[in-house]
């Protein structure tokens, strides 16, 4: 049993709280480590030290800070296998998927190697007679990142890399269910040259999160997690005068038009619906075929694909498509929602409940489930299931399908499969969702674009990573300057007589 620590001033430091949260091996159901649940005093102490360390880091020129990002990127690459293993061990996702988790975080580090360019500021020459204006981007000071369990490497990297490259210090509060990857990343960025105290990892639960929200020296909070907590954090951070961007849950739809290539759509749906056991905020959880024939063909194409899915532990000798869900409670909740779908009249085409793997009887495995004839009033449609469950809501027309997506309270990602450019363009233009895929199931934008949902999938302003991150993690100062007539108007060349 490993007793995990915090990361304070460049070293692992035990918490004195005496309170812990269990970290499971989701494949076996065993507790493999304990995360300390730090106290308010520990958080406040970490912030005070970070504020001291930030003074020097913020004054370090942007190119030198970027060099730390370059070395950090190199170290992440060198430790890719080790980091992926850490992710899989606590989260349960397959090793190739865990490598993707690290890789999509690394790509944000790579963009931060170009931070000096993003931080350059603006200049207006002669905004008035002899008057110049210039704007500069300066760090906020100490900022905080609060992250979810489902991407133990990627989301901490999305938070820390831009925040640090902009010259801030960061308090990182990882998910208590998967804390080890963040601690290892903190070691690696120290090795890359980050001064001690600039990144503090403080583990904990609501107590520490509330302390972050109330600490006057924290200028901004970046959160990723479920919608109710995102909304709560946004409200409390804003009430305390902090800048906040809080990303929440999702219910992502894929529309399948009658002219779509059904095999390609079914392949995409299986990967996007069941990959990572459906525990992705960009997972497609609702398929929306347009027309009866499209719906029938889609279900026919999906069934053999879903039945073939291989579910097992990340360290199995055989290749697996996805692993267990995160906790026994998550499994029970998912199976409860499946039961509610049946009770409320949906057609359960494939039932993944009650899955037990030989040798892993206590693991949190859920078999894949597929629903047809789901309607918007059912709980399986209204709730974010966050499990390997794909619901099919049939639509009669393109307009009906589009309106279903528009009326859904979430707006993280969505996709359309079609052979018609005009339909695709209309969809991308009219839909009220932050990230749109055209014949592309999980449209997570590349790291030099930017990531963010609409509606109840995000609270606050500005997206994660890309140009928006450099805006979020800096404040703009604009100087209007005028110089009065100087020596060029006439130097004095002769000895002046005394007045
Ligand atoms: P969660 O909301 O339970 O936890 C997220 C973080 O908030 C954790 O660090 C946790 O310790 C903290 N927290 C939990 N309860 C709290 C409370 N009452 N008060 C204060 N802090 C609290 O989310 P999760 O289960 O770890 O992650 C899954 C959720 O995250 C899903 O809803 C998923 O869609 C969402 N998510 C969203 C995005 C996005 O970018 N929109 C990305 C990944 C995950």
Automatic annotation (TrEMBL):
Domain of life: Bacteria
Pfam families the UniProt entry points to: Aldedh
Record key words, sorted: NAD, Oxidoreductase
Keyword NAD belongs to the record: yes
Residue span, Aldehyde dehydrogenase domain: 17-479
GO BP field: L-valine catabolic process; thymine catabolic process
UniProt GO molecular function: methylmalonate-semialdehyde dehydrogenase (acylating, NAD) activity
Keyword Oxidoreductase: yes
Enzyme Commission code: 1.2.1.27
Protein name: methylmalonate-semialdehyde dehydrogenase (CoA acylating)
Species in which this protein is naturally found: Ponticoccus litoralis
């Amino acid at each position: 049993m490993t007793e995990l620590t915090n990361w304070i001033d460049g070293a692992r430091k035990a918490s004195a709280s005496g309170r812990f949260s269990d970290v499971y091996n989701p494949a076996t159901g065993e507790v493999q480590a304990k995360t300390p649940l730090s106290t308010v005093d520990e958080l406040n102490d970490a912030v005070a030290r970070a504020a001291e360390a930030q003074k020097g880091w913020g004054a370090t020129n942007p190119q030198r800070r970027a060099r730390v990002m370059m070395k950090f990127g190199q170290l992440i690459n060198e430790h890719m296998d080790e980091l992926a293993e850490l992710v899989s061990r606590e989260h349960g996702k397959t090793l190739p998927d865990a490598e993707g988790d690290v890789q999509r975080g690394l790509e944000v580090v790579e963009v931060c190697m170009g931070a000096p360019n993003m931080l350059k500021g603006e200049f207006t020459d002669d905004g008035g007679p002899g008057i110049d204006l210039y704007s500069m981007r300066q760090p906020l000071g100490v900022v905080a990142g609060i992250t979810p369990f489902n991407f133990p490497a990627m989301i901490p990297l999305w938070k820390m890399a831009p925040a640090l490259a902009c010259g801030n210090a960061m308090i990182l509060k990882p998910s208590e269910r998967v804390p080890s990857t963040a601690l290892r990343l903190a070691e690696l960025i120290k090795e890359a040259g980050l001064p001690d105290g600039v990144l503090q990892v403080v583990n904990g639960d609501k107590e520490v999160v509330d302390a972050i929200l109330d600490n006057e020296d924290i200028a901004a909070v970046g959160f990723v997690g479920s919608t109710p907590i995102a909304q709560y954090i946004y409200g409390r951070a804003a009430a305390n005068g902090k800048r906040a961007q809080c990303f929440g849950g999702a219910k992502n739809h894929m529309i399948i038009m009658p002219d779509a290539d059904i095999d390609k759509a079914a392949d995409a749906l299986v990967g996007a619906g069941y990959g990572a056991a459906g525990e992705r905020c960009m997972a497609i959880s609702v398929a929306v075929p347009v027309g009866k024939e499209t719906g029938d063909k889609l279900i026919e194409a999906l069934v053999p694909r879903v039945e073939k899915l291989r579910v097992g532990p990340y360290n199995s000798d055989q290749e697996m498509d996805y692993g267990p869900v995160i906790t026994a409670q998550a499994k029970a909740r998912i199976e409860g929602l499946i039961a509610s779908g049946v009770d409320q009249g949906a057609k359960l085409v494939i039932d993944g409940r009650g899955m037990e793997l030989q040798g892993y009887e206590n693991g949190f495995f859920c078999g894949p489930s597929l629903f047809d004839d789901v309607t918007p009033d059912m709980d399986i449609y209204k709730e974010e299931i966050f499990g390997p469950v794909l619901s099919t809501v049939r639509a009669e027309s393109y307009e009906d399908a589009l309106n279903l997506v528009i009326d859904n309270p979430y707006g993280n990602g969505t996709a359309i499969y079609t052979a018609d450019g005009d339909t695709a363009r209309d969809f991308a233009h009219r839909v009220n969702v932050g990230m749109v895929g055209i014949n592309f199931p999980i449209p997570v934008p590349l790291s030099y674009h930017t990531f963010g949902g609409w509606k109840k999938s995000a609270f606050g302003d500005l997206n994660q990573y890309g140009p928006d991150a450099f805006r979020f993690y800096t404040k703009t100062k604009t100087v209007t300057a005028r110089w009065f007539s100087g020596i060029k108007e006439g130097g004095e060349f002769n000895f002046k007589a005394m007045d």
